[in-house]
Design brief:
Chain lengths: 383, 166, 375
């Protein structure tokens, strides 16, 4: 019962530490207007709006999609709000694709945003759970120990994380929308302050304001153009419980299972050989090495070697995060959809200066929670 | 209202204040009360026998109820950790501090805990630690009855013994 | 838009009785027994259900990422296909229906949780308003409901006595519902003597804020019949939202509820909502009930026609985030013959409605039946 579904338009804002030139509605409209223009469509053509963003505490407005209905173009339309922690942008895009796949909707707008400069991000990400000691200081405070475990298990040299971070900036220089674009060297990273050892300041994602929107449509609309579409060949979102004894938090099972599911749907048997570029969710440098393993691009324990050889750099075998990724741009709610949207841009041939040559298949990936939520898709040039 | 303001209004600052009064739930409440007696309680899965701390009403792994409470020793091993250098609003811990995953002896999952009484550089994966409690008479049956964990000085536990309890 | 749809049914529904404050369980701990019970009703283990959706909101939970804790009590091991919506459970059930239409999975579990007793809902939902112009006015859901009530009464001439009668009818129904929070019938005259909380809404016309957890199981044809002797089939469903801006809409009407109902009825092949036997509405005030019946094309003052809120509705218990899921669950119970003392005889069609946002801003409508819709 599979109906072909495609991304037919992508729009994103210029991402920055603080977009003081627009309000939340303005930020969202910037992305939506660009996506609709890209797709050659108008608001009236959209059948439903699926919105995603991370915890509402980030802006201090509860259920903000409600006050944003006008800006979203959702008046008298179905509007749904997704929230799956860091992966939300991706799971939102996937939910939009499911709407079209169902046959009930022909053209759906997926929107994800965060204007976290308007709240206190560190506070919002450091939940003081009742009855537990308040120790977690930001997302990095939660994930840093698992990066340490990865380094210990694999014996990876300490320059790998900084190498990833420096490479991300080099990529971001080719992405006009990215937040952090100034180049930096491995030495710059290694001499920056430790935030949550072993993670340093310059290997950590920024806090950004930004939004992204995708127009997802059925085959008839996709073939109508004006753009070459990015066909969604496989897509899934998974989650796993937190307190499972023996849960692997360095290479979570939910990530592996989700990837296998998506590869099977897309007919991918050898990711390293059959995927030409991957936008994967790397908020702290070491995750790039960890996710290469989790996603089956290389054997377990070998992810850092891919980095060391430079095989994931722009122009090499598998450019990873040619957009600069989360390390250079992180409006939390939007980041997941930026990964999936950038993967689509690559297939559509619309990635400008960071276009990878000859992309037949691209992977977009995101994760969230205590590395519990995983959402990803494979987009392809052929239906 | 006469003239518009000379400078455009660009920002509105509001403070959000929301009070919450949380229910601990019977399982957690029992664990907290036991802290008064310097006891650490976990709960055991009725299907697999695995022990969870803090005590959970059901096992997230087997989906079976946890019907039995189990007392655990107040010592264990640092499975992994990080050294925190960032301040957070409303927190008073001196920086830098070590936030660690600690797997108590007998527990199948670990807890997040503060490590003190040692230099941050000396903390290592596998380090054996013990709880430091508030003195008798000062414990209230709250999470801070355990002030922090400190190294016991015992030899480090081998990686295999805790790598699955991160 | 294609019209060839899969037949999808509700095959199980479980909820905890709605209480004012559960002193023994955290919000997600309330969910565990209810998921177990729903699966037991369907006669399957957790592994048999392929997709899960949870519904809740961080602000009620009082912490960012509050919904993540639900994973551990829903049986999320091994890893499950999953989604979470920051919306009332009825909207999550709608997405579950859409997911089943997409054809990759045949069964969906929808879980809702939320405690209204731990925070202060009037402050929390004040923060859901436009932060520039509405929230600073200090409006809360009762005040905005009162604005809507004023608008409706001004347009239609409905009286205070009319409102009291509607509440009395709901309260009498709730007395027969062991899961309701308020289970005592109260005569209209007594309700009409309660002081005004915000005119024109008396304290007695306001919903009882409560808490619970619920779990629904949906399944596609071919699987549904194995999980339930009398599956309740979804004949049509749709939802719509409208602008929040209070001054930009006719508060005396719900345009989005009308749209949702019209499309749901059209899919169901029904000419009118009058053709169903019962309607479960997420109406938190008697005025909302009238506005929603209006939107359904029915006259709320007419004694004939479908029975409205045989469960007692949100006036007898409003566990925010679960209220809409319970309307679906109650419709399921009625059509599956599981409604106990409040069972309507020979009910074969029902409408279940969910809503959220100030002044019925977002509405979802399901049309259900005891027979399959498409052959």
């Amino acid at each position: 019962m599979k109906r072909p579904v495609a991304v037919v338009g992508v729009g994103q804002t210029k991402h920055a530490a603080r977009r003081s030139d627009c309000s939340i509605p303005g930020l969202v409209r910037e992305a939506i207007d660009r996506a609709l223009l890209d797709a050659g469509l108008e608001h009236r053509d959209i059948d439903a709006v699926i919105v995603g963003k991370a915890p509402d505490m980030l802006e201090g407005v509860a259920q903000p999609e409600q006050f944003l209905v006008g800006a979203l173009g959702g008046h008298l339309k179905p509007v749904l709000r997704v929230h799956t922690a860091g992966s939300v942008g991706a799971s939102t895009a996937i939910a939009a694709a499911v709407h079209v796949q169902s046959g009930l909707y022909d053209r759906v707008l997926a929107v994800a945003f965060e204007k976290q400069s308007e709240g206190n991000t560190m506070w919002a990400l450091s939940p003081s759970l009742p009855f537990t000691p308040p120790l977690v200081a930001g997302a990095g405070g939660f994930f840093a120990p698992y990066c340490r475990a990865y380094i210990k298990k694999t014996g990876a040299p300490m320059h790998i994380g900084p190498m990833i971070a420096a490479n991300a900036r080099e990529n971001a220089a080719r992405n006009e929308y990215a937040h952090l674009r100034e180049p930096m060297t491995i030495e710059d990273v290694m001499s920056s302050p430790m935030l949550w050892e072993p993670i340093r300041y310059l290997e950590t994602c920024p806090s950004s304001d930004g939004a992204v929107a995708l127009v997802i449509a059925n085959e008839e609309q996709a073939r109508r153009g004006p753009r070459k579409p990015a066909w969604i060949k496989g897509a899934a979102s998974y989650a796993e419980a937190m307190w499972v004894p023996g849960r692997d938090q360095v290479s979570p099972l939910a990530g592996k299972v989700c990837a296998r599911h998506v590869y099977a749907q897309a007919g991918i048997h050898n990711p390293w050989a059959e995927i030409q570029t991957a936008e994967i969710y790397v908020p702290f440098s070491w995750f790039e090495a960890m996710w290469l393993e989790n996603l089956g691009f290389c054997a377990e324990g070998e992810g850092w070697k891919v980095i060391d050889r430079g095989d994931q750099r722009f122009g090499r075998h598998l450019p990873v995060n040619p957009s600069g990724g989360v390390l250079c741009t992180n409006p939390i709610g939007a980041s997941g959809m930026l990964r999936l949207g950038e993967a689509a841009l690559q297939v559509m041939g619309r990635a400008g200066a960071h276009q990878v040559d000859g992309v037949q298949h691209a992977l977009g990936h995101a994760y969230g929670g205590g590395a519990q939520y995983f959402a990803m898709w494979i987009v392809g040039a052929a239906v | 209202m006469h003239e518009p303001p000379a400078d455009p209004v660009k920002y509105i600052e509001t403070t959000v204040r929301l009070p919450y009064c949380y229910v601990a739930g019977d399982y957690r409440a029992r664990q907290l009360r036991a802290f008064k007696d310097r006891k650490i309680l976990g709960s055991r899965c009725s299907k697999t026998g695995k022990v969870f701390i803090p005590p959970l009403p059901n096992s997230p792994e087997s989906f079976a109820p946890c019907t039995e409470f189990v007392e655990l020793p107040d010592r264990g091993v640092v499975t992994t950790f990080c050294v925190v250098n960032i301040p957070v609003i409303g927190r008073s811990i001196d920086l830098p501090y070590v936030a660690a995953s600690v797997a108590l002896d007998g527990a199948d999952i670990s807890i997040f805990a503060l490590i003190q009484e040692c230099r941050a550089e000396d903390v290592h994966m596998g380090m054996r630690v013990e709880a430091v409690w508030k003195p008798d008479g000062e414990r209230q049956g709250a999470h801070d009855d355990i002030l922090y964990f400190r190294p016991t000085g015992e030899p480090a536990a081998p990686l295999e013994s805790f790598i699955n309890r991160l | 838009m294609t019209a060839s749809l899969r037949n999808v049914a509700i095959v199980a529904f479980a909820q905890r009785p709605i209480v004012t404050r559960d002193e023994h369980r955290m919000a997600t701990e309330m969910l565990y027994p209810v998921v177990r019970e729903a699966l037991a009703q369907a006669g399957v283990e957790r592994d048999a259900v392929e997709y899960q959706i949870s519904a809740s909101t961080d602000y009620l939970d009082g912490r960012p990422f509050g919904f993540v804790a639900a994973l551990d009590v829903m049986g999320s091991w091994p890893p499950r296909q999953d989604l979470h919506l920051e919306m009332d459970g009825a909207f999550a059930a709608y997405y579950g229906w859409v997911k089943l239409q997409a054809g990759d999975v045949d069964s969906v579990l929808v879980a809702t949780h939320g405690k209204t007793s731990e925070g202060q809902p009037e402050r929390i939902f004040n923060l859901a308003l436009d932060p520039y112009y509405h929230a600073p006015l200090g409006l809360d859901p009762i005040s905005t409901s009162a604005l809507q009530a004023s608008a409706y009464m001004a347009r239609t001439g409905i009286t205070d006595a009319d409102l009291a009668r509607i509440v009395a009818r709901n309260r009498a129904a709730g007395a027969r519902n062991p899961d309701a929070q308020l289970r005592e019938a109260v005569p209209a005259e007594v309700l009409q003597r309660a002081p005004f909380h915000v005119r024109p809404l008396r304290e007695s016309y306001l919903p009882a804020l409560g808490e619970t957890a619920t779990c629904l199981v949906l399944a596609a044809e071919g699987v549904a019949e194995r999980l339930c002797e009398r599956p309740v089939w979804i004949h049509g469903a749709h939802h719509a939202s409208e602008l929040q801006t209070l001054g930009a809409r006719d508060l005396s009407r719900s345009a989005s509820a009308r749209l949702a109902a019209e499309r749901a009825l059209a899919l169901a092949g029904l000419a009118s909502a009058a053709e169903v036997d019962l309607i479960e509405l997420s109406a938190t005030t008697p005025v909302e009930e009238l506005i929603l019946l209006d939107a359904l094309g029915l006259d709320g003052r007419s004694p004939d026609g479908p029975v409205v809120n045989p469960s007692g509705g949100p006036l007898c218990g409003h566990p925010i985030m679960s209220t809409g899921a319970i309307r679906l669950g109650e419709a399921f119970r009625q059509l599956a013959g599981r409604a106990g003392a409040r069972q309507l005889p020979q009910a074969s069609h029902a409408i279940a409605h969910g809503a959220q946002g100030h002044c019925l801003q977002q509405n979802v409508c399901f049309v259900l039946g005891t027979e399959r819709r498409w052959r």
